[in-house]
Amino acid sequence: MKKIGRILFLLFMVAVLWYLFIKPYDYVVRFPAKTTVGTINQSIKSWYAGIEGTQLIDQSKFDELTQQFNFGDSIHTYTWKIEATTDSTSRVKVYIKDEAHSLANKLTIPFSTTAIEKRSEATVKEFYDVLNLHLKRTRVTVNGQDSTRATYVAYVPLKGQQAEKAKGMMYNYSLLTQIMLQGDVTLNGTPFVEVTNWNTKTDSISYNFCFPIIKSDSLPEHPEIRYKQYHSQKALKATYNGNYITSDRAWYALETYAKSHNIPIDLTPVEVFYNNPNMGGDELQWKAEVFMPIKE
Q1: Rounded to an integer, what distance in angstroms lies between the CA atom of residue 276 and that of residue 109?
Q2: Which architecture characterizes domain 141-293 according to CATH?
Q3: What is the DSSP letter of 100?
Q4: How far apart are CA 167 and CA 176, in angstroms?
Q5: Which of 7, 174, 178, 281 makes a 20 to 30 Å CA pair with 185?
Q6: Any idea what DSSP says for residue 187?
Q7: Location of each CATH 3.30.530.20 domain in the chain
Q8: Of 192, 193, 291, nearest to 235 (Cα)?
């Protein structure tokens, strides 16, 4: 019995030492979300960007983000870990640590409701509310396998952050419209974006903003406009409704779908747009068809 008592005492002391000095966080908040890992990842980044005194310190993992908040004289580190539970749902765990008062928090949390608990729950709830509002303003439906349409195009090559894609489209929509009109070029469909490179670690893309046209022998010349034949591709297709700034939410939905169904894809999405953002209107009525090419 004494031996068993010593073993239990040692285990208890190991647990206490781990809890006080090794455990990497003071408090954890958990919540489910009816969306993909990618949408949560991007929503966290856009949310924290609007909060003074925050910085993203690690985004090397797609399903894990670490950021710091300055709350008065305290620096709180938030580590967001996101796990997919289905094609369209996720589970989020947020691990919070007060860098200067971690030991004091660990000593008091078991016995009372502490300031870090209240602050952490309020901060995570703020994001949770922002996320759910965003989800009400967008809709993604995965349609299954399809193909993109072959066409000749006039296009402008662009690069930048994913969130800047809509701005690049709006600026060059007027340019392409004007030059094609002046050159008496016949359009052959709605504009689309062809992503040629997607860096998921930096959220940056290279892409072509394309106007489908009828090829002719006298196409207008412009230093920013190029021409080429776009070829059809087998692809997974999704329908996106919402502001085109966040149409990349469909990219993540298609990537998640492909992974769960063991479908090899190229991360070079194509987006076909059916509304002109310059005209405004109810964003939930804006439509884009999004394709993720399937590897042959």
Answers
A1: 53
A2: Alpha-Beta Barrel (3.20)
A3: T
A4: 14
A5: 281
A6: B
A7: 20-136
A8: 291
pLDDT tens digits in sequence order for the chain, 296 residues long:
666 666 665 665 555 455 555 567 889 999 999 999 999 999 999 998 877 778 888 888 889 999 998 887 788 999 999 999 999 999 999 999 988 777 666 778 777 678 888 999 999 999 999 999 999 999 999 999 999 999 999 999 999 999 999 899 988 999 999 999 999 999 999 999 999 999 998 999 999 999 999 999 999 999 999 999 999 999 999 999 999 999 999 999 999 999 999 999 999 999 999 987 767 778 999 999 999 999 98
| Residue 169 CB contacts under 8 Å (≥ 6 apart), including other chains | 191, 193, 209, 244, 273, 277
Rounded (to 5) percent helix, strand, coil in the chain: 35, 35, 30
Unique residue bearing structure tokens 């640590």: 97
| pTM for the structure as a whole | 0.88
β-bridge partners, 71 = 74
Give the 3-state secondary structure of residue 254. Answer: helix
